[in-house]
Each structure stands twice: as structure tokens, then as C-alpha cells.
């Protein structure tokens, strides 16, 4: 019986090739899109889940509560590690400190090789490596208990030495200061990890060398130094957090004006946390995961709606077949299962095509989401998901058409008297098309808003000049410091170089150096002041504008400082001139005079408000050479700058980049999400068009006699087109009324992630509904015109 059902299904497909093609293409695209989204979501949820103690690993972070808000730092003070071990002896704690922009020098067989590692260089303890359970190819975590030892991942060992089996005992130099002996090799961490450590020096090495930034001060908190706990299964998170609050009161009682407390964050939440962040390449928020999952579900629903519309539109043409089968003895149950098997047959074909489409599209996923490795369809989870989709789509798409077709009255069916009422009425199909276009218009509005926000960011006034500024970064030490003045003079001689400045940081970046401070010989203020260090030409290089006073003069040490408008606002000072000449003190440092106030510039991405900033000179903190160039021959000037660097600092590598490229990276995930919206809005529109084609096909069948009579009575082709088109214009307008508030709600929440944002004005909605109407007219045009120009006599004879 089942075999007979499949034979019948195959014959029906061959007999109705057009409908079969539309059904299969719509379902295949929907299933392929859903499968790809499943791969992305499941991959993002798998981050670090492979670790042995995944469910019991917790990250300790710092929360500072001020009178005007809360700040979070992913790190803790350096002394907190020993204090945590003393106060929590029952829990294993391990720490690491990340170090970016390190130069690694390899001297072997009379040759010297230099590498600049932007990421993956860490100082770590044996306990941290034990908690994270890295796979050791040589050595073990205990090797990191010794000073001046280092562990490499396999790929880095191959990069430095050409092999990894014979590198134990060899040495390398980090930042031209410390010689480290290689004592272990670990397997590279999978791509789906936020802890892809590559070079791990012993933490005791950092403690013994002040140039690496170790501090004994409880007031100094950096996101680079992080502590993780392996909490035993018999101890719950809540009890540990209660102890941590007591711990915080004990050690932070006299620290600044904030209420500081350490809290726990489970490892399963780290990859999704955009407030505190992680040590990986990106954050995939829970909201984004839900959005991707919802888009996949909606795409499948739209594909199922198409199938229902096309199947019921075809039902009238199959009425005689159903009538004959019933007269010959088939009951309703047999007909129902036959139609459902036909649906299953189509869905299976669609699923096979979807697998091919998904396989072809997998290499393109990297352009849409931040996934570095190639995803695989050949895994049990993917096949289980695909089987689930096949079952779900068969039920969603097949039940209603099967019920309708199997319920035909045999006498009515044989007389070819099946009307719209007997096929379930057109109202349901209208409702389904409204639902389809509501979904597509939500995605269209989302795409338009996302594009508008990205354009807003691209054109926003950042308060400084970001164009044609070349930044060359390197580690800084006494050797480099001695040569900076002469190096600057030579750079200024290069044609096309306008200004040169040395700085710790560019005006807008992800780096935040905060401290407590006091103003005008008063007690410490109750909010954090953020610091940036640059020489006297910093303001010219980046085009910062002064609203009062002027910049500080050339000096190796900081005597005068410059502040921004936001700091004045938080100090309740309305006139910038009042601040000139007043003194300010950071931490335990001496009082320094304010010589200027600059107009606010965006200190971080546009997701965040401008921070209160103090700028001063501090030669030992300079990490970047900032060169303002003319906008012509940038590549030539760039090579000349690099040549000068190599001449002055032959032992140091410098990596260069343009500032606008760095700022673009702030919004990499938003740019990817915008592209994602574009792709799925296009898919939604395409699937909606198939749905419209199904409905217009149904309407043409139902209105054959009406169109013939109208033509005989003199109706024009344009009036016939209007007869069909007005139906869809009305449906699209209803869909828009449903989609607009839903899209506004979700996109307004998305825009709330930005402190500076575009507005969702009426133009967004006009463009969305206009796009839908234009696409609908194209979709219904073919069938409508065919009906309008058909011979009316032939139409009337068909009745």
C-alpha cells in the first residue's frame, strides 16, 4: 500500500511539473536556510563545552557600583588571587594574564627570527591549565610553576621551529627582555573556544618582571588579569557568591568611592556575554541566537504556507481523481494517507536538494557570522535535525491539503463542481499570505534599520579626524624611548606626513584605563576617570578641538593635563573656562594643572556613552606612533614610515594599520548581522512570491467564468489586472499593519544597544511597504496577465 502511495505521488509530480517545481524549490530553500542557521546556532552554543569540567568552571569578575551607574570589569586586582586561595581553600582557583602585541625572538643556528603576536600570548599558572584541561603533547601543567618557562601550542611551535617534537629545552625571547625555556607543548584549542592560548609563559615570570605590568595594589583592576574557579559539584554557585560578597567587604572596604564586589559567571554564559565580554574573537549574544533561531523557524513556516497554498490551488484540478477513487471504494482515511505520503515524498526530495544547497553555501557562512572553521553537515546532530524538520514540515504542510482533498464529495467531484467553498475557501489562503508578508516585511524593516544604523555610524561625527591616520604599534622600553625624538624628526621629513604623535592609545578604542581621582583639592569623586596618554602633538594629529585653554607643552613627564567636556558635565561645571588652571589628581599621584578642555570625542564605539577623559603625556606608556598623512599615495608613505622604523629600531617589529580600519572592527558583528538580515529578507521575499503565485493560481481557477463574462461584456485587460491586483494590495497593507509594530519593537530593542543611534522614521516603513507591493506586482503579473488576455469563449466553455 505504501509503495503504491509513492508511485501515485511520483506520477502526480510528473503530471504537474510546474506545481512540483514551485513546491520543491520553496521547501528546499526553506529547509536549507533552516539547516544552515541550525549549524551556526549549535556551533555558537558549543563554545568550550568540550572541556571536562565545563559545568563547574566559573569566572570571577568585578562589579563597581557608583551613584550614577554600574561598571563591570572582567578582571580582578592581582593580589586577589592569593586572597581567594586563602579564603576559599576548598575551591581550586587558577589565573592567567593576557598580553597583547608581544614580540617573540627566536635565535637558532646563527639566524634570528622575529614575530609579533597580537593575540594568544599569556602568563598563566599550572592551576589554570588544570582547570581548563588542555591536551598536553609534551610536558604537563607543573612546568609553569618554574620561572622563565614557556609552553607553546603545536601550531606556534611549527611556526617558530618547523616542528614540535624536538623543541623542548629550546629558548625564545619575549619583548627583547626575558629569555624563556620551552618546557611543554599543548594541542591547539578548537576554534570553538574563547581560550585559544598559544604561548603561555609561567605566571611567576610576570611577577618577577615589573615591565609586564604586575601590580601589588588592590586598587588596580585590569581586564587582562582573570581568575577562574573549579567549584566542586557539591557546592552551589549561590553559596560561593555569598562568600564572595563577604570577601569583597573584607578587602575592598577602603577602595575609592564605589561599592566593589566580586561575582561569579558560569563558563556556559561567557561566550554570550556582551556586557563583560570574553577573551575570544567575538561575542554571540543570547538575543542574536534567539533571533537566528526565530528566523529559521519563520522561513520554514513560510515554506509550509506556500505548500498549502499551491496544494489547495491545485485541488480543484484533482477533484475528478478523488471522485473516481472514492467511487471505486477508497475511503477518506486511505485518501488522507495518500495525500500525506505525497507531501512526504515532496518533502524528502526537497530535503535532499536542501542538503546540496546547504553544502554549497557553507563556505559563504564566514561572510555572515564570525566562524573561523568550516562547518560540517556530516554529523549526527545535523541529520537528527534534518529528520525532525522533514517530519515537522510534512505535518505542517501536509495535514490541511490532505484533509481538504480527501473530504471531497465524490458526486460533486465527478461533475467538476468543486468550488472555492469546497476547497476550504479563499479566506484561509489570504490569511496565510498575510502571515507570509508580515514575516517578510518584518525582515525588510529590520534590514533597512540595520543598514541605516551602519550608515549612521559610518557618517557619525566622532569628534576627531580618523581619515588617513596610520598607526604603527610596538612594545615600548627604554631603548625605544631614547630614540623617539630622533625618529619623530625623520618621519616629519617624509613628504606627505603632516603630523606625528606618540600615544598609549588612539582617541576611540576598546581599551579603557580607569582610575579614581579628585578635583580642585576636594575628596575623591564618586565616578571613574579614564586616562589616555599622548605627546604634545596628539591633538593636532587627531584634529581634537579645544573649547577652552590649549594643549600641554612638550614634556617627558606629565605636568599639565587636558580634560573633555563630559568630565566637566559630571563635575557640574557649565563654563569650561572655570576649569582652566584648576588642579586634578589621579590615584595617589601628585596634583596637576588643567591647561585645556577638548570637545567631546567618541572614546569607544557608538554603543557606549562618551567617558570622562583626562589626557596627559607619559613617555613610558607610549605604544603607538600616530602619523597623520595626506590622502594621496598612502601606500608609498606607509612603506617609507616602515623603512624609518626598521632603521631606528632594527630589533623591534612594528605592525601598522589605518585608524578607520580599526574603528570598522568595532562593528564587525553588526555588519555581519546586517548582511544576515539582507540574505534572509531576500529569501523571505522570494518565498512570499511563491506564495503569491499559489494564491493567484487558485484565484485564476476560481474566477475563470467571471473573467470570461467580464471580457465578453467589454472589460479591458487593465481592469482584469486590477481585479486580481487589488486583492494583493489589500493583503499587503494588512500584513504591513501587523509587521510594523512588531518590527518597531524588536529593532528598537536592537538600537538600544547603541548610545548613538539613527531614528526609525516614517521613511523606513514607506520603503518597506513599497518594496513589498513592488515585489507582489511582479509575482502576480504573469498569471494575472495570462488570465486577462485569455480567450473568453474558451474560458466560458471550460465551465
Walkthrough of the structure:
The strands form 3 sheets. Strands 1, 2, 3, 4, 5, 6, 7, 8, 9, 10, 11, 12 and 13 form a 13-stranded mixed β-sheet that branches. The chain contains 25 helices and 25 strands. Helix 2 crosses helix 11 (332-361), helix 9 (286-315) runs parallel beside helix 21 and helix 14 (426-459) packs across helix 23 (717-751). With 799 residues, the protein is α+β, with helices and mostly antiparallel strands. It folds into 4 domains: 1-47 and 286-424, no CATH class; 54-270, no CATH class; 436-461 and 667-799, no CATH class; 475-653, no CATH class.
Total strand segments: 25
- Rg, alpha carbons: 34 Å
> What does the overall shape look like?
globular
Q: How many domains make up the 3D coordinates?
A: 4
Strand fraction equals 15-25%
How far apart lie the N and C ends?
Answer: 36 Å
Put simply, the count of helices is 25
User: Mean pLDDT, rounded to whole units?
Assistant: 82
Largest sheet: 13 strands, mixed
Helix content: 40-55%
Q: Helix- and strand-based class?
A: alpha+beta
Q: Name the poorly predicted regions.
A: 417-425
Secondary-structure blueprint:
Elements: H1 2-15, H2 17-45, E1 57-66, E2 69-73, H3 80-87, E3 92-98, E4 102-108, E5 111-117, E6 121-124, H4 126-132, E7 136-138, E8 149-153, H5 154-161, E9 171-174, E10 178-186, E11 199-202, H6 203-208, E12 225-230, H7 237-251, E13 259-266, H8 267-270, H9 286-315, H10 319-327, H11 332-361, H12 380-406, H13 410-414, H14 426-459, E14 469-473, H15 478-492, E15 497-503, E16 514-515, E17 517-519, E18 529-533, H16 538-542, E19 546-549, E20 560-564, H17 565-570, H18 576-579, E21 583-586, E22 592-598, E23 613-616, E24 624-629, H19 634-648, E25 655-658, H20 659-666, H21 668-702, H22 704-712, H23 717-751, H24 762-789, H25 792-797
Parallel strand pairs: 6-11, 8-10, 18-23, 20-22
Antiparallel strand pairs: 1-2, 1-12, 1-13, 3-6, 3-12, 4-5, 4-9, 7-10, 8-11, 9-10, 14-24, 14-25, 15-24, 16-18, 17-21, 19-22, 20-23, 21-22
